[in-house]
Here is the input.
Amino acid sequence: MMFKHFFYLLLGVSVISCNQTENKSEEKVTVSADSTRNNSTILAGNDLKVENAALTDIYATYIQLKDDLVKSDSKEAANVSAKLAGQLKDNNDYLKIVEKANDISKTDDLKKQRLYFSDLSDEMIKAVKASKVESGKAFVQYCPMAKNGEGAYWLASEKEIRNPYYGDEMLNCGDVKEEITKK
Here is the structure.
């Protein structure tokens, strides 16, 4: 009899804690939707600045693109990726970034955009890591479910996970793998 009461007590605690976790996730979604509308809100206090001013600007635009994919806004992702490619049109150091940004800009298919974003992110991570960070930080984040279970990385200005590969479907799926900061 005592075991039966203990079992129900544990079951009740489990249900309550799952509901609290679920409510926190819903609360985060609301915050994310509000904070991703204005890029300056996201970057405030953590602007990544590298010695290459062009890359600093490119990173800010990349973060806008990431946020549009988090919101599953394929039209705005296409617009921002076109802007990103335009920022780099005369820069031969970032040809692969231009290529992937152009790929994203040419489609409104969110699944294709997210696939191209994975390749773009790999190139952005290499570029930021190869640069001297003057201030701020970037977080290398990873989702093991992206690209049909292959996994994919992306950069973020905040430590909190906002998954660009799944948006609201799996907003918090992933973890921080590395922090890029001034050495």
Summary: The longest strand covers residues 137-143. Confidence is low (pLDDT under 50) at residues 2-45.
